[in-house]
Design a protein that fits this description.
Blueprint: H1 3-18, H2 35-49, E1 67-68, H3 69-81, H4 86-95, E2 107-108, H5 117-120, H6 134-143, H7 149-165, H8 190-193, H9 199-211, E3 214-215, E4 221-223, E5 229-230, H10 232-247, H11 252-268, E6 270-271, E7 276-277, E8 279-281, E9 287-288, H12 305-314, H13 349-361, H14 365-382, E10 387-388, E11 395-396
Antiparallel strand pairs: 1-2, 3-4, 5-8, 6-7, 8-9, 10-11
Helix pairs in contact: 1-2, 2-3, 3-4, 3-6, 4-7, 6-10, 10-11, 13-14
């Protein structure tokens, strides 16, 4: 980010914390919740991250300088909230990396293709994927009137890869590396990370798991003899995004696949005792059940209202995942819970976004607004941080982070005062 843009962002964030932010950018006049002033600050974040040559935003210039799959999808949602055509442009760039077999890499090294070789053994792209949030992003753009026809075909091919090349006989989709889950540092991976958890050791394990990937003819990861898991969160987001892409104009098979996968998630992964969905180790047949937030993302697709209510109880009020800044990434009841720990209890804005969405689509508007306000509060207090302390709201990780702008896409109804 340029010094000028960084200074502008700092000033806006300070004004928002003081409750004095005025109009800026596309924000218009500020509402009583500060959300319109926040939109101006969010626009400054994305503007500062924008790569005009490649037409995308890296999540953060210093920490994450390349294009990440689901980050770009979330950026597109925020661009859309700003009524900016760069939401379409960013998805076009992302989907331009769809391979001949339909595989969509989770990372594209646009500005330095050779930098990919050291880890992935090929230039430009990684060999693993990430949750396919492009289905939802395309639907958001389509419902706002942006042209998306050119995006649907490559998105469908990417989705077909998952539902054909990664589909298990039980109807679930496998991931072949913890990084594919997008939540690789939380307690769910204890069988691989070892106990007690130690981040440096776990990073070494994750790097070694890259070497055991088994690739297809196009260099796309298909299997991994050391890691093959039907992850609750990935399956939930695959089902959800297939349905979203169908709703945006994609072919009928997407809706049918989404429904079938949702049924398999409820049949094979639900744990009644813990009130959550588990991960299934496809090699051993063991189920890993932990109090982690992303396992509850199946609330987006479950047909069980009773299960949905248990999820909403967990993330609100005195629930074991509730916090003033959005749901904790890991339950307070988990051993080793740390409100500032990366994957161990801190709050993640992109996950809060998805639970706001789930609450509103299920008619839980009050809860949706409460979560939306919590996320807006976290965004402002943290200065657009990657994740935040669940107790203090202090910003953690990279800053500014592109997906931290997501609260502007979900203003509360009606506006409320920020506490």
């Amino acid at each position: 980010m340029s010094g000028e843009a960084g200074g502008d962002l700092a000033a806006r964030s300070h004004d928002l914390q003081e409750g004095t932010a005025g109009t800026a950018g596309t924000a218009g006049s500020e509402g009583s919740d500060g959300s319109e002033g926040a939109a101006g600050a969010a626009g400054a974040v994305l503007e500062g991250l924008w790569e005009s040559k490649w037409l995308y935003c890296p999540p953060n210039r210093q920490v994450y300088p390349w294009q990440w799959l689901w980050d770009s999808c979330f950026h597109a949602v925020s661009w859309c909230a700003l009524n900016d055509q760069r939401g379409v442009a960013e998805l076009r760039t992302l989907l331009g990396s769809v391979q001949l077999d339909g595989f969509l890499p989770h990372m594209t090294y646009h500005s330095d293709p050779g930098a990919a070789r050291g880890l992935w053994g090929r230039p430009l792209w990684s060999t693993i994927t990430q949750p396919p949030m492009y289905g939802h992003a395309i639907r958001v753009l389509a419902e706002s009137g942006w042209p998306v026809d050119e995006l649907i075909e490559p998105a469908e091919r990417a989705m077909r890869f998952l539902f054909e090349r990664r589909l298990e006989p039980n109807g679930l989709v496998r991931i072949v590396h913890p990084w594919e889950s997008g939540a690789d540092d939380n307690p769910r991976w204890g069988a691989w990370s070892g106990t007690p958890f130690e981040r440096r050791r776990w990073m070494s394990v994750k790097l070694s798991l890259v070497s055991s990937l088994e690739l297809g003819e196009a260099g796309s990861a298909l299997t991994n003899p050391r890691f093959s898991v039907a992850a609750a969160s990935f399956n939930a987001l695959a089902s959800f995004n297939a349905a979203e892409l169908h709703a945006a104009g994609g072919p009928a098979w997407l809706g049918q696949a989404a429904e079938s996968l949702a049924e398999a998630i409820d049949e094979f992964l639900w744990d009644e005792g813990r009130g959550t969905w588990a991960d299934l180790d496809l090699t051993s047949g063991d189920r890993a059940c932990h109090g982690v937030l992303d396992a509850l993302l199946a609330v987006l697709v479950t047909r069980s209202e009773e299960r949905a209510e248990r999820v909403f109880a967990a993330i609100s009020g005195d629930g074991h995942l509730a916090s003033p800044f959005g749901p904790c990434g890991t339950s307070r009841e988990e051993a080793g819970f740390d409100p500032s720990g990366y994957g161990r209890g801190s709050v993640w804005p992109h996950l809060t976004y998805l639970f706001v969405l789930a609450a509103r689509r299920r008619g839980r508007d009050v809860l949706g607004d409460e979560l939306a306000m919590s996320s807006m509060r976290a965004m402002i207090r943290s200065g657009f941080a990657e994740h935040v302390d669940a107790v203090t709201g202090q910003g953690l990780g990279a800053r500014p982070q592109g997906w931290a702008t997501l609260p502007i896409a979900q203003p509360p109804h009606p506006p409320q005062e920020l506490a």
